[in-house]
Fold OmpW family protein.
Amino acid sequence: MKRIVFAIMAISLMTVNFVNAQNSNEFKKWQVRVRGVGVVTPSQSAKIGIIGGDVQISDTFIPELDFTYFFTEHFAAELILGTAKHDVKAINTVAGEIDLGSAWLLPPTLTAQYHFYVSDKKIVKPYIGAGINYTLFYNVKSGAVADVKYDNALGYAAQMGIDLNITDSFFINIDAKRLFLKTDVTVDATNLVPDLIVPAEVTIDPWLFGIGVGMRF
């Protein structure tokens, strides 16, 4: 009787291991994408102290790299890496238009995603996602003023896109993201007016529209 029980247990364990092995091979857990991305800032705005007015931030085009890990066939996490340079102006102030130079933004972004196929052919694979980003400002040029300081800031992200499968391993990607970002800015304009320090709260909220290629492994 003991031999029969042990045999049944051994067969059960072998069956479980086999099923787990089969399930682990049903999908590739990692993928990497390279995209060209247009960074568009249609919702930019600012609350500028003392001199009033608003902000104008330039659009730009950047390369982007991302890594995705699939916990299941449908649920994944994606780390998105890219950096962008933007020219900045204060507009409609009491002093007119003021060149605030430029700043580089590095907003590493982590999103949780849901992926699904639209048919059994498994060619078109849409996804949606949401997450967080932490934006670092660096290599700031001050333009017409003495200095500009941007506070690094935590924000949120929303995402949607489509993977178009070429093979099991390679695909084309179309992606759109929205980052929700506010930062506190301090403008040192003492070179223009003695003792003039201007605080501002700037909302950027850029859209990122990308197209690229990816590989699963």
